[in-house]
Amino acid sequence: MESSLVKDNPLLLAINRQKTIYDGFITVQDQDFRLRIQLPADRQLKQARLHCSCKLKHLLRGYEHIVKQRLQQSADLVSFMLELKTVMEVGLKSRPECSSIPPPQYYSQLISEMETLGWDKLLSIDTEFQTLRLKVQDSAGRQHILIIKLKSKHPAEAPECSADLPLPLLITWTPQSTLAQIHHQFLLVLESLTEFWDVLDEIDRQTWILEPEKPSRSDTMRRIAIGNNVSIKVEVDPKHPKMLPECCLLGAELVVTPLRNKLNANMHLWNPDSSLLLNLQDVLEIEFPSPATHEKSAFSVECGICYSYRLEAELPDQVCNNPCCGQPFHQTCLYEWLRALPSSRQSFSVVFGECPYCSKPITVKMPTHQF
C-alpha cells in the first residue's frame, strides 16, 4: 500500500515512523493542494483526521459530507486518496475560479520579482496575492499608481495593467518578462505624457476650474471660468498638448458671440512653442480670472430653478440671453420647467419658452439622458 500511495502521490509522505501522519500535497489537474492526514494507532480510516489548506477547503466546500463518507467506507488510504481526487476534480469543474488559484511556484516567482523591483514600491497587495498596486514617481515628481493583476500562470500569461492615464496603457509582455520590466515600461509612458500634464497643471494652477471638480490624471477636459456665467471647455490632446484644443464657449450669446468671433479670427496666431494657457488668452484677447485675483464663489452661481450649483455632475450652463437678466440654469432643470408650461412648444429636441425670471424668450435642448 505504501508504494502505491507514494507512486500516485509523490508529494505526500509519512512524517513519522509509525506512518500514521502524512503531510504534503495532492495533485489534481496540475495543481498542488496542501493537506495532512492523521491516522489512529491502528491506522483505521474511520477515525482519521483530515487537515486541509484554505485553498483545498474552498475547493471542497459543499462536498464535506462526501469526503467524510469516503473516509468511513474506503478500504485503505490509497483508495481514499483516489476517491478524494475524484471529488476534487468535480469541485474544479463546478468552481472555475478554483482552477485559477496559482501553484506554489507562483509565489516564489512573485517574491523574487518584488525583491528585484524593490518592496518600497509596493503600496498594497490583495489577499490572493494576485492584484498589486505599485507607486511610481515620474521625473516631474508626480505620484502615480500602477495596478497589476497577475494571472495564475504568471509569467507565462500576460498580466492586466491599468493606471490613471489619458491613453490606454499598452504593455509588451513575454513569458520572460518581469514586474521590473513592467515598471520600466510604465515609466516610459509617464515620461511621454509629461508635457500633457505640465499643460493641465498650469491651467489648474492659474485659472478657476469649474469642471471636473476634482481632476484626475486621465481627464483631458477643463472647463475654465472666464466671467460670471461665462466659461470655456477645452479638450486637450494628450499626444499634442500644445496644439489648439477643441473649444466650446458656454454662456449667454450676448457674451459668447464676441469671444467666438475672436477665437475664429485669431486662430492663426496660435503658437505651438508657447503655453496653451497663454495662447488661449491671446486668441480670445482676455485674461482668465485666477485664484490670485478672484474668489471662486464669483463663478459658482446657483441654478435659478433648483437653487443649487451642482446637480449631480451637472453645472448651470444654460443662461438667459437677456442682458438685464443673465440667470443661469441647469439644462435638466430648465428643460423640465419649460416642458411643464402650457405656453412652451417643442420642435424636435429643442424646447422654446420664456425665462422663469424675466419672461424673455429662451430655448433649451433636450438633455442627452432623456433620449
> Largest sheet, order of strands side by side?
1-2-3-4
Biggest sheet layout: 4 strands, antiparallel
CATH topology of the largest domain: Ubiquitin Conjugating Enzyme
Mean pLDDT over the residues: 88
The beta-strand count equals: 17
Distance separating the two termini: 73 Å
Model regions low in confidence, pLDDT < 50 over at least 5 residues: none
Radius of gyration: 33 Å
Shape: elongated
Number of domains: 4
What is the top-level CATH class of the largest domain? Alpha Beta
Protein name: E3 ubiquitin-protein ligase FANCL
EC number: 2.3.2.27
Keywords: Cytoplasm, DNA damage, DNA repair, Metal-binding, Nucleus, Transferase, Ubl conjugation, Ubl conjugation pathway, Zinc, Zinc-finger
Pathway: Protein modification; protein ubiquitination
